[in-house]
Design goal:
The complex is a heterodimer. By secondary structure, chain A is an alpha/beta fold. Chain A has helices spanning 40-48, 72-77, 95-109, 117-130, 148-162, 178-191, 205-210, 231-239, and strands at residues 2-11, 14-24, 29-33, 54-62, 65-66, 80-83, 166-170, 197-201, 215-220, 223-228. Chain A is globular. Chain B is an alpha/beta fold. Chain B has one domain (2-486). The chains are: A alpha/beta, B alpha/beta. Chains A and B meet through helix 2, strand 6 and helix 3 of A and helix 1, helix 11 and helix 12 of B. The complex binds adenosine-5'-triphosphate and magnesium ion.
């Protein structure tokens, strides 16, 4: 479960998140939609612990525990996963090596044994098959020279492997071709579970046809300004965000 | 992967400020008075019972040295060495030539044990699986003196000579006389000239015609005594069609003063012979404020004298306050090949100016340079490389790849290539990149659960992979650990 309360965040002196509240329960899939530059990625980064943001107020709880004082790797071990809007290339580091190092680092942090090579291979192969990622990708340096869509699939593969309790997908659908959206969505649907909270950041209602959300939140001006069910996404598709001008008194934040 | 894990574990287990090899041992030393003059040179020579020709050779070098100026073209800054305050000779007392293990000062053996050097042949023989392939003959050099050489008998059976050079002077004078100074002439440069005057010991290797040396040969250098300069001299000759792989490891205790190390290594390959020379250099780099540390001014040069011969230098440089080092190849024989694979890491206040020279003299000669420089902390890391083709060197080929990785904002990386082709058929390729571990990369890795140290170790190991692959297996593992250790404190 993810709880964000009264979160105020600034960067370089500009307030980006301005008292944001968001709760995503265990097993819930929440979609966040909102205009460009409204702070969706900022929210994702701040939850994951990226340094350059200044958290000026509020709290972020994962499974009831405040994570704001934790480093990014500690948050990862606590179950936070972020699929990046722009996954990063890591030259020279083999994908397999990276996956194993990451998985084992998290397991160690949680006091679990490291996986044996066969057990690890089995997990990777299963995740790879589910996301239809060719095996030769595993031999390449992580994300280096991957196409935009391939990088995103690789991020979802990592999510499958790391089994987070809070998974944030930042525009995972953008840049994916039609088949890839289906494959990735099926992957995400398989990973939906009663213990896992998903946050889907997207601009397109289309994704939500594949991954049907429990809740849809509209973000504007650094806050959640409206919350509804999946039909809210359809409504947005029709009317756009014009009714959600930042800090518009006419549209009080739901909840 | 296992090795990366090990690296990471090792990093965790080590106190950030602790240089692991920084213990100093209490061993009675026999030391020459400070300063240098002809009498000291004679003293060193007489301590070794050297023949007249060698004493003269040293004296001539000394006189040359007096006329030379300390070079200042390297991108390193340091208070000048006070050559007249150094001791030019230090040896464990009661030492008179190499002994069998039983006779060696047990304290000395304990030092080597602490260093993890497998001096005890028995241990090796009884060692873990794969012992047969892993056996390494070791020549241990303590301060200036070669203390013990293992596996001598077995090597002798193959006709391989592996002994302290001070011993070879007596047992194989014709070889020493023929080859000593034939690659690095006495007057070559300031430090090598000084070395010629005062060198105390080092390793001598001769591989006879057609012999593939049955095991890796290794020398471990350790500086222990205070205020001593260490001047080893290594001479390796691979006769026609022979092969040898030679490993060199170095450590020194932590001391506040800087210590001078000015070694000379000469390699000679005859027709179709090959020498593979690997170094893992881990001299004390100085403390966090840049105090102390070794000044490493080393001259290493190989002469591919015979046709189709090959010399390959691989180095992992992590230690020393100052590194001034350019292992080079003279590609004299037609069809000969030179290689240089280097990982040079600098952290804290370290300064590295290192690279290579590939001098193409013969026809159809090829060379390959892969250099990976990593700078962290407040360090400066310079690659300086020279590739040249002589007028008569038709079809000379060189490939150079020189990559620099920066960690943090206070360090520097510099690339200084000199390329000179005096023959139109030369094909020289030069690639260079400079990159930085970006905050985005660090955040991405950490988001997946890796700590900052783990992420750095992973990225750096990826960066140096091409070179690590050139090292003998056990050395590669050791080097990987060293890399992680030397980057301690460079992140976060
Ligand atoms: N490092 C930074 N320095 C200055 N401003 C920043 C920085 N990062 C983000 N911002 C600003 O913060 C605001 C929110 O950016 P953010 O990336 O969170 O938006 P977003 O909602 O994800 O947009 P999009 O839909 O285009 O992905 C933008 O105005 C952006 O320019
Ligand atoms: Mg965004």
């Amino acid at each position: 479960m993810l709880e964000v309360r009264d979160l105020i965040v600034s960067i370089a002196g500009n307030t980006i998140l301005d008292g944001l509240n968001l709760t995503v329960r265990d097993g819930e899939v929440a979609a966040i939609m909102g205009p460009n530059g409204t702070g969706k990625s900022t929210l994702a980064y701040v939850i994951a612990g990226k340094e350059e943001y200044e958290v000026e107020g509020g709290e972020i709880l994962v499974d009831g525990e405040d994570i704001l004082a934790k480093s990014p790797d500690e948050r990862a071990a606590a179950g936070v996963f972020l699929a990046f809007q722009y996954p990063v290339e890591i030259p020279g580091v083999g994908t397999m090596t990276f996956l194993r190092a990451a998985l084992n680092a998290q397991r160690r942090a949680r006091g679990e044994d490291e996986l044996t090579t066969p057990a690890f291979m089995k997990r990777v192969n299963e995740a790879g098959a589910m996301l239809e990622i060719r095996k030769d990708f595993m031999k390449r340096a992580l994300n280096v020279g991957f196409s935009g869509g391939e990088k995103k699939r690789m991020d979802i593969l990592q999510m499958a492997l790391l089994e987070p309790s809070v998974a944030i997908l930042d525009e995972t659908d953008s840049g994916l071709d039609i088949d890839a959206i289906r494959i990735v969505s099926e992957g995400v649907n398989k990973l939906r579970s009663a213990k896992r909270s998903f946050v889907l950041i997207t601009h397109y209602q289309r994704l939500l046809n594949y991954i049907v959300p429990d809740t849809v939140h509209v973000m504007s001006g650094g806050r959640i300004v409206r919350t509804g069910g999946k039909e809210l996404a359809l409504e947005l598709e029709q009317s756009g965000y014009r009714d959600f001008a930042p800090h518009s008194a006419a549209q009080p934040a739901a909840e | 992967m296992a090795a990366v894990q090990e690296t990471v574990d090792r990093v965790k287990s080590i106190d950030v400020t602790e240089y692991k090899y920084g213990f100093s041992s209490v061993i009675e030393m026999d030391k020459a008075p400070a300063g240098l003059n002809e009498d000291i040179v004679r003293l060193i020579s007489s301590k070794k019972n050297e023949p007249e020709w060698l004493t003269e050779w040293r004296l001539e070098a000394y006189r040359r040295w007096l006329t030379l100026e300390e070079p200042d073209w390297a991108r390193v800054n340091y208070p000048r060495v006070k050559f007249d305050e150094l001791h030019y000779y230090a040896a464990p007392k009661s030492h008179s030539g190499p002994k069998s293990l039983d006779e060696v000062d047990p304290e000395l053996l304990r030092v080597y044990e602490k260093l993890g050097i497998p001096l005890q042949e028995q241990e090796l023989l009884a060692g873990v699986e794969g012992a047969a392939q892993r056996r390494v003959a070791v020549d241990a050099v303590f301060d200036s003196v070669s203390v013990v050489t293992t596996f001598k008998n077995e090597l002798a059976k193959a006709g391989v000579i592996f002994c302290p050079i001070s011993e070879a002077v007596h047992t194989h004078p014709e070889l020493v006389k023929k080859y000593l100074g034939s690659v690095v002439p006495t007057s070559d440069n300031y430090y090598s000239t000084l070395n010629a005057a005062v060198f105390s010991d080092g390793s001598f290797v001769y591989i006879p015609k057609g012999v593939r040396c049955p095991m890796e040969l290794s020398t471990y250098f350790r500086i222990n005594e205070q205020n001593t300069g260490q001047f080893e001299r290594t001479l390796i000759i691979a006769d026609e069609g022979s092969y040898v792989s030679y490993l060199e490891g170095c450590t020194a205790p932590r001391r506040d003063e800087n210590q001078l190390h000015a070694a000379v290594v000469e390699l000679i390959t005859h027709d179709d012979a090959e020498i593979k020379y690997s170094t893992v250099q881990n001299w004390y780099p100085g403390d966090a404020e840049g105090k102390g540390g070794i000044y490493n001014f080393v001259t290493k040069r190989g002469d591919c004298r015979g046709k189709n011969s090959k010399i390959s230098w691989t180095q992992v440089e992590t230690g020393s306050a100052i590194t001034w080092k350019y292992p080079s190849c003279i590609l004299r024989g037609d069809g000969s090949r030179g290689e240089f694979y280097s990982i040079a890491i600098s952290n804290g206040h370290q300064q590295v100016d290192s690279g290579t020279k590939m001098l193409h003299l013969g026809k159809n000669t090829t060379s390959r340079i892969i250099s990976k420089g990593i700078s962290a902390g407040k360090s400066q890391n310079t690659y300086r490389g020279q590739v040249s083709a002589h007028r008569k060197a038709t079809n000379a080929r060189n490939f150079t790849n020189c990559d620099s990785l920066l960690i943090g904002n206070d360090c520097g990386a510099h690339t200084v290539p000199y390329i000179e082709a005096r023959n139109d058929s030369a094909q020289f390729e030069h690639e260079a990149t400079t990159s930085k571990i970006s905050e985005d990369q660090m955040f991405y890795c950490q988001q997946r659960g890796l700590s900052a140290e783990e992420a750095t170790a992973l990225i750096v190991n990826g960066f140096v992979r091409d070179v690590l692959q050139q090292l003998p297996m056990e050395f590669a593992v050791e080097a990987q650990k060293l890399i992680a250790i030397s980057l301690e404190g460079s992140v976060g």
